[in-house]
């Protein structure tokens, strides 16, 4: 236990490591992107995390989602990730919320603690917009994941301000919604400039919170999650400037 983090210390030094130990990071959404983001943040040595997801694991999650195994079907993603993160770092302070965050629940969540960073991995537009807006209102640093589906080229993944995102349908819809709220820039997003494959998207009916199902490949959502984690860690260490622009 005394040296599980020795490689991280070797890279960033003890002073920077202490910055991570003192940080509290919120990750909302523990699917294909969010679970990997949460694990990478945990493995980096962040001292406190709050993880949020109300979904249970289904067989279709297994092609890309970290907590999804044949043995975990039907379990809450948040419960599986709680066990996993505590097994990585038993000393981490971990807060687990198995709720679908929307409307006033977003305010309650964001006011429940002093967060140093928020990671948005929600894949439904309305609650995503709500979380982003209210996080920016509180001037909490934020990174948001755009769509990892219908794409296969990892070299096209980028990290930029939301205003500079392109060739991503989710980012396009998000910019339109946020623009109506007066938000046009001011937070980092992870997106892919690769053109989405139209044949990989099908419409669905009578499925809660979803209007479509998008084909995905195993490695793209995890890479998005790793990119999100990199923004958090580098932001906490002061290696990149993360702030809400006026």
TrEMBL record:
One of its GO terms (molecular function) is ubiquitin-like modifier activating enzyme activity. CDD domains: YgdL_like. InterPro entries: ThiF/MoeB/HesA, ThiF_NAD_FAD-bd, Ubiquitin-activating_enz. Signal peptide: none annotated. It comes from the Bacteria. Gene3D superfamilies: NAD(P)-binding Rossmann-like Domain. Residues 7-240 form the THIF-type NAD/FAD binding fold domain. Transmembrane segments: none annotated. Pfam families: ThiF. One of its GO terms (biological process) is cyclic threonylcarbamoyladenosine biosynthetic process. This is tRNA A37 threonylcarbamoyladenosine dehydratase. The lineage of its organism: Bacteria, Pseudomonadati, Bacteroidota, Bacteroidia, Bacteroidales.
């Amino acid at each position: 236990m005394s040296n599980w983090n020795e490689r991280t210390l070797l890279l960033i030094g003890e002073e920077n490591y202490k910055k991570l130990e003192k940080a509290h990071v919120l990750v909302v959404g523990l699917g294909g992107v969010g679970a990997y983001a949460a694990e990478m943040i945990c493995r980096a040595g962040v001292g406190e995390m709050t993880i949020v997801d109300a979904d249970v694991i289904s067989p279709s999650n297994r092609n890309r989602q970290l907590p999804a195994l044949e043995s975990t079907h039907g379990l809450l993603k948040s419960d599986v990730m709680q066990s996993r993160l505590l097994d990585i770092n038993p000393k981490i302070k971990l807060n687990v919320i198995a709720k679908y965050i929307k409307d006033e629940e977003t305010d309650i969540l964001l006011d429940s603690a002093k967060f140093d960073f928020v990671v948005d991995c929600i894949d439904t537009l309305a609650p995503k917009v709500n979380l982003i807006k209210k996080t920016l209102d509180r001037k909490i640093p934020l990174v948001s994941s755009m769509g990892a589906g219908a794409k296969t080229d990892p070299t096209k993944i980028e990290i930029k301000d939301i205003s500079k995102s392109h060739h991503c349908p989710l980012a396009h819809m998000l910019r339109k919604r946020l623009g109506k709220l007066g938000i046009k820039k001011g937070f980092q997003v992870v997106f892919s400039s690769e053109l989405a494959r139209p044949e990989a998207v099908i419409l669905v009916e009578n499925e809660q919170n979803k209007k479509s199902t998008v084909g995905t490949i195993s490695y793209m959502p995890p890479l998005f999650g790793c990119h999100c984690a990199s923004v958090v860690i580098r932001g906490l260490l002061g290696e990149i400037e993360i702030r809400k622009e006026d």
